[in-house]
């Protein structure tokens, strides 16, 4: 297969993946974020990169949003939300974060392939995303992509869809959001 054919197959996989999302779970997350105080986002590896993009867009919408682990990230507390992106739902560092957030009185959301995972069971809300865990992509024919690429790509699309829903609910426009865009670049 050539490079363009691979790209087309990735788009096809994403189309199938997005078609499996649960509207109710997505709507609940958007509503929770709209009524929350601060929003904290975390994930490990590439899932973490997708979370960083989500935190940036949340900030553009006017939400007070932080990436866990950054030096300017404040403490979490009641009324706040921690959003964890984890394919497996078993990442030890994220599980520890979830426990600390719950102890501080914050809500925890797990966006994961495995809602029945350790993080999923601890979370106040789960959003199930389709995808294949890193270790199960070769034999299952779920995806042609390596490791958890399909989950990570779906995660970014899902996060962007949540932003669009929040924009709709608050009357935000790209023009208004641009006022929160970085201007020291």
TrEMBL record:
<dbReference type="Pfam" id="PF01380">
    <property type="entry name" value="SIS"/>
</dbReference>
<comment type="similarity">
    <text>Belongs to the SIS family. PHI subfamily.</text>
</comment>
<dbReference type="InterPro" id="IPR017552">
    <property type="entry name" value="PHI/rmpB"/>
</dbReference>
<protein>
    <submittedName>
        <fullName>6-phospho 3-hexuloisomerase</fullName>
    </submittedName>
</protein>
<dbReference type="InterPro" id="IPR001347">
    <property type="entry name" value="SIS_dom"/>
</dbReference>
<feature type="domain" description="SIS">
    <location>
        <begin position="29"/>
        <end position="172"/>
    </location>
</feature>
<dbReference type="InterPro" id="IPR046348">
    <property type="entry name" value="SIS_dom_sf"/>
</dbReference>
């Amino acid at each position: 297969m050539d490079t363009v054919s691979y790209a087309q197959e990735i788009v096809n996989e994403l189309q199938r993946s997005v078609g499996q999302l649960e509207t109710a779970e997505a709507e609940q997350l958007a509503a929770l974020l709209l009524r929350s105080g601060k929003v904290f986002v975390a994930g490990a590896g590439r899932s973490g990169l997708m979370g960083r993009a989500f935190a940036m867009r949340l900030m553009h919408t006017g939400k007070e949003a932080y990436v866990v682990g950054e030096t300017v990230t404040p403490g979490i507390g009641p009324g706040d939300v921690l959003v964890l992106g984890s394919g497996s739902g078993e990442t030890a560092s994220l599980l520890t974060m979830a426990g600390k957030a719950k102890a501080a009185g914050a809500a925890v959301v797990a966006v994961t392939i495995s809602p029945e995972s350790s993080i999923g069971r601890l979370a106040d809300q789960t959003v199930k995303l389709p995808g294949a865990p890193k270790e199960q992509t070769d034999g299952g024919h779920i995806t042609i992509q390596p490791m958890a690429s399909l989950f990570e790509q779906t995660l970014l699309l899902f996060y962007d869809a949540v932003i669009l829903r929040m924009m709709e609910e608050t009357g935000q426009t790209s023009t208004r959001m641009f006022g929160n865009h970085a201007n020291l670049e």
